[in-house]
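Give me a protein, keeping tokens residue-aligned:
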Amino acid sequence: MPSSKNPPHYNLFIKGAWAKPSGGETLEIRNPATGDIVGVVANGAEQDVKTAVSAATEAFPAWSRKTAEERADALYAFKKLIEKNADHLANLITSEMGKPLKEAKTEVAFAAGLLRFAAENTRRLEGDIIPGSRPGEKILIEKIPHGVIGGISAWNFPLALFARKVGPALAAGNTIVIKPHELAPLAALEATRLAGEAGIFPAGVLNVVPGDGKGVGTPLVEHPDVRLITMTGSTATGKKIMAAAAETLKEVRLELGGKAPFIVMEDADLEKAATAAVLARFTNGGQVCTSNERTYVHAAVYEKFADLVSKKIAALKVGNPLDAETDMGPKVSEQELEKVHAMVEKAVSQGAKLETGGQRLKGGIYDKGFFYAPTLLTNVKEDGHYTK
């Protein structure tokens, strides 16, 4: 894990080189488990977005003309770099957003797999030949790249979401300008540094502009030369992006939050179901868009299932995410902790029963970070609204 005494510094990565932000501002990235500064990154602005988009636009013609094999080879090389530096990248993920190290290592492997998937599919971007409306006429439909892609990723999977956006964009012959989330940009920037030093991608093909939504995200969405926006984040932000993108008629790909149900039927293996329910809810501190957000249990097995879940929750170890025995680390920020607590309080006010948890953890390591107790609510109203 990076030392707070000598945290890594990252600037903007534009046109194959590191550049200082136009406004000279930086962001301190703090470990949510300890409060230590684990990185300092450039805080980009609109002018930086314009520079990055210009670089991506300039690089697009040559990159799009490369063969599928050439683009695949570059992505395979990137994948190998990720795998070679897996431990280092996993430690960065844990330090910047609090994910237990064992889960961070899984994320790094997932990121490498996403790059492999993109590389493998470069040869599968096939077109179609269809009959025309006149005798002897055939219509050729060819799939061509959009141009410059704008990527906006979330903090809960800082490396995997970076790979999920960069891989497919570059595989298809596009260039990209991507904004990693301001709470957790280190793993993405470090992966970019590795790729840059290895000379994997031509200058301008991959551009990374860290910063907040107002300074970087909005200008990226609104830029007329960005032809497609891909974003992972909240539903509220997704609505704003879609509205802003409409002004320039760019395509939009949104991966937003959800309320995934976990359903336990009468004939279920309750031990396995309870284990799966807890795993699906508390992995990554519950900070996953496909988490077990609500659990429906058949009345015939409800009491036994609830008892099993309660015991498994009680056995969860919350603490230092670097500890191999830790099951759940801190929330990514105090704002996220307060949001969760407000949801719990609102549920209780509407009649839900707090079985366990429901408060910020205190004492020892807990006083330094944003730790929240694993929580179980029962008697929750199906039509309840616990968020703003």
User: Anything to note?
Assistant: The domain at 261-378 is CATH 3.40.309.10 (Aldehyde Dehydrogenase; Chain A, domain 2). DSSP finds eleven helices and 16 strands in the chain. The first strand starts at residue 9 and ends at 10.
